[in-house]
Amino acid sequence: MALEREVAAISSQFAVSDAELLAIAKEYIRLAELGLGTDSMPMTMIPSFVTDVPNGSERGTFLAVDLGGTNFRVCSVTLLGNGEYKLEQKSTAVSKNLMTGSSKDLFSFLAKQVETFMKLHLNDHFNEESSTNGEHILKLGFTFSFPVNQTAVNRGTLIRWTKGFDVVDAIGQDVCLLLQKELDALKLGVHVAALVNDTVGTLMSRAYASSSEALTKVGLIVGTGTNGAYVEDLAKVTKLDLSSAAFSNKHLMIVNTEWGAFDNALRVLPVTQYDRLVDGITPNPGFQMFEKRVSGMFLGEIVRQILLDLCTRKVLFAGPSAELTTEWQLDTSFLSEVENDESEDFDGICKLVEKSLALHTSHAERCAIKKIVEAVGKRSAYLAGAIIAGTLQHIGACSNRSSVDLGVDGSVYAHYPNYSKLLKESIKIILGDDEARVIIGRAEDGSGVGAALCALVA
Ligand code: ADP
Ligand code: MG
Q1: For tag attachment on the chain, is the N or C end more exposed, with fewer CB atoms within 10 Å?
Q2: What is the model's pLDDT at position 351?
Q3: How many other CB atoms are found less than 10 A from the CB of residue 167?
């Protein structure tokens, strides 16, 4: 009985009321508008310098490369013009030495991978006269998932490394130029045409491949982290010098919101003691506060903190295990597996808890774990839905009875049971009947197809 009571109390802390959802959407719009006017807001609203959205009729062959973690991926993407494409790819591990060596070593390694790939998959191109006499003929989209200060569609200086990279002399340099220089040294005939953020690529690939009539206006990711990009009126991006010749005849701009940093001030986001504990063990306490309630990196740890608390208070488990007391022990796939067990005796949950936490459970304990997981998962989807609804309200996407299309990528969205249903529930609470005009679908391969499309429109 004590367990049931405690679980009900915790679940209610994770419930987000309609009024709270409305307040979150409203605060999102306020902060988005501030961010479009200045560079000094945490939710930075970064202009991508991508000023066209594809419609599915685009054609041609492009290269895309993706440097974002332990692997470097090279792809060739052939757009077939009817929303379809062919893609070939090769991933190579980036060694620890390269991750912490010189920029020359790293970028010449990357260029070398492009050369090897082209010899294998783009032989025709490789043998063409024009590619070797110095003309840049094959366009490349460069997905680079580190903080950059972007100043043009293919210009961006590295602010700092993350994820274990520490190539000190690259900081402050233009990563597109570093790559271009090494590609040129190999005489590959490749032009680095676009520096691409993965959410922008997600929006672009969805716009190309979506079969819905509605225009794609938003791309978002709920994976390790969460972020979104959307199609903005160029005139509203007031922090840019809009009189510049670069923008003549341009009307729109895809903006990378960096919404993981939404409401770091915690004016509207829910805060539980478990959120505080998780924040406290991250390398960046007080930052990325929205992301820490929504994305895959954190949901497992929120659940572990709750289970540990209930164990310490002697209402759950016979006693703690080493696994239960280990930070970051639970992955978000743990939540998915718990949610997936619909059996009467929760046999799946029983085995899962034995495997992940080395703990035995009674039936009542398995029910409790299920309720906790549902509360944490639902809060994630509801918060994500509130931000999406805020974005749609900000751009007036559902006015005039028009429909709007959204592309989503990331393992949490893809694999968490009912995530998309919960997302839509939350959007409906905020948008009412307009929710029926919101089409949400999977976006394919933002860093491949999406980056190729960025290179095309650049
Ligand atoms: P990334 O965001 O790094 O590009 P992913 O989109 O694959 O990569 O997201 C990885 C995140 O998704 C991890 O935090 C992981 O916990 C989470 N994840 C992986 N599998 C599942 C699953 N079955 N259900 C829910 N979350 C998952
Ligand atoms: Mg990803």
Answers
A1: N
A2: 98
A3: 20
- Expressed in angstroms and rounded, the spacing between residue 410 Cα and the centre of ligand 2 is 6
Residue 401 burial class via C-beta count within 10 angstroms: exposed 0-12, middle 13-18, buried 19 and up: exposed
Annotated catalytic residues are 145, 160, 198
Q: Is the CB of 340 under 6 A from ligand 1?
A: no
d(CA 350, CA 366): 7
- Compute the Cα dihedral for 124, 129, 131, 135 and give only its sign: negative
- How far apart CA 101 and CA 382 sit, in angstroms, is 43
100 lines ligand 1 (CB under 6 A): no
Strand 138-144 and strand 59-67: the pairing is: parallel
SS3 assignment, position 225: coil
Q: State yes or no: pLDDT of 277 exceeds 60.
A: yes
At residue 55, the 3 state secondary structure works out as: coil
Q: What is the pTM of this model?
A: 0.94
pLDDT digits (tens, 9 = 90+) for 372-430: 999 999 999 999 999 999 999 999 998 878 899 999 999 999 999 999 999 999 999 99
What is the rounded average pLDDT of the residues 186-193?
Answer: 95
Does residue 190 carry a pLDDT above 60?
Answer: yes
Cβ atoms < 10 Å from Cβ of 153? 22
pLDDT of residue 143: 96
Distance CA 387, CA 411 (A): 19
Q: What pLDDT, on a 0 to 100 scale, did the predictor assign at position 444?
A: 86
With a cut of 90, say whether residue 91 has pLDDT above it.
yes
Ligand 1 pocket check: which of 411, 415, 419 to mutate, most ligand atoms within 8 Å of Cβ?
411
Residue 291 Cα to ligand 1 middle (Å): 13
Residue 213 neighbours by CB distance under 10 Å: 9
Place of tokens 């994500």: 384
In whole angstroms, give the CA distance from residue 189 to residue 11: 58
Reported as a pLDDT band with limits 50, 70 and 90, residue 135 is low
Mean pLDDT score, 331-354? 98
340: closest CA among 328, 357, 352, 354?
352
145 in contact with ligand 1, CB cutoff 6 A:
no
Tokens of 114: 């492009």
**DSSP track, 339-380:** HH---SS-HHHHHHHHHHH-----HHHHHHHHHHHHHHHHHH
Q: Is the CB of 189 under 6 A from ligand 1?
A: no
Helices and strands, number each (H, E), in the chain: 17, 13
